[in-house]
């Protein structure tokens, strides 16, 4: 007499290992964890075929846990950590980009509003000068608009000199001064205005 199957446990274990060795190398490690049920079904089918001849019926196979090698586990943890760091770096870069965009938008809005303020200020100065010129021409007979503008330029010239002298931050500023200096400044301004109007 002889036995076809002398050690059932070892025989089943050998079939299980054979099926796992045939199935697992075809998959990535992440897929192995995800496809535990598929591997269990493959083991069940192979065991059913092999063991039914010996009178065994395989009801169900379960893969309870997958234990990769310690080096593999460490490598997987490092890969996961690197992926999380990459996501965090991308999120941080995106946040910095949004911050820079918002800062640039704020600066652009501030410059726009500053430009509006300067334009209104200059308009007010022009309106005031016009009223002054008209009022002075009416009140002092024989004066022309040019005479009044020359007087305004002299006043502004002296105001500018006073401002430069009053500020402590200015080191040395050379300003032409003499009887013809204001006339030169006035003619330069007039020439500049005429040139600008001709270019338009």
UniProtKB/TrEMBL annotation:
- Per the record, the coiled-coil ranges are 72-105
- Start and end residues of each Band domain: 6-97
Gene3D superfamilies xref list:
Band 7 domain
The answer to whether keyword Coiled coil applies is yes
| Keyword line | Coiled coil
User: Which InterPro entries does the record cross-reference, listed alphabetically?
Assistant: Band7/mec-2_domain, Band_7, Band_7/SPFH_dom_sf
Question: SUPFAM superfamilies in the record, alphabetically?
Answer: Band 7/SPFH domain
Q: Does the keyword ATP-binding apply?
A: no
Which CDD domains does the annotation name? SPFH_like_u4 (cd03407)
**Name of the protein in question:** Band 7 domain-containing protein
């Amino acid at each position: 007499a002889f036995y076809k199957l002398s050690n059932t446990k070892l025989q089943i274990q050998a079939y299980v290992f054979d099926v796992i060795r045939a199935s697992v190398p075809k998959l990535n490690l992440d897929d192995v964890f995800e496809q535990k049920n598929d591997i269990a079904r493959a083991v069940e089918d192979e065991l059913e075929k092999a063991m039914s001849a010996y009178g065994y019926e395989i009801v169900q196979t379960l893969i309870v846990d997958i234990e990769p090698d310690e080096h593999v586990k460490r490598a997987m943890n490092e890969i996961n950590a690197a992926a999380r760091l990459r996501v965090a770096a991308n999120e941080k870069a995106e946040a910095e980009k949004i911050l820079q965009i918002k800062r640039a938008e704020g600066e652009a809005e501030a410059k726009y509003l500053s430009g509006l303020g300067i334009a209104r200020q200059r308009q007010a100065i022009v309106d005031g000068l016009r009223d002054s010129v008209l009022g002075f021409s009416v009140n002092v007979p024989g004066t022309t608009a040019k005479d009044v503008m020359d007087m305004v330029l002299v006043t502004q010239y002296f105001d500018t000199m006073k401002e430069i002298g009053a500020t402590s931050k200015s080191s040395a500023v050379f300003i032409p001064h003499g009887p013809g200096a204001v006339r030169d400044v006035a003619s330069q301004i007039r020439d500049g205005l005429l040139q600008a109007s001709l270019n338009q």
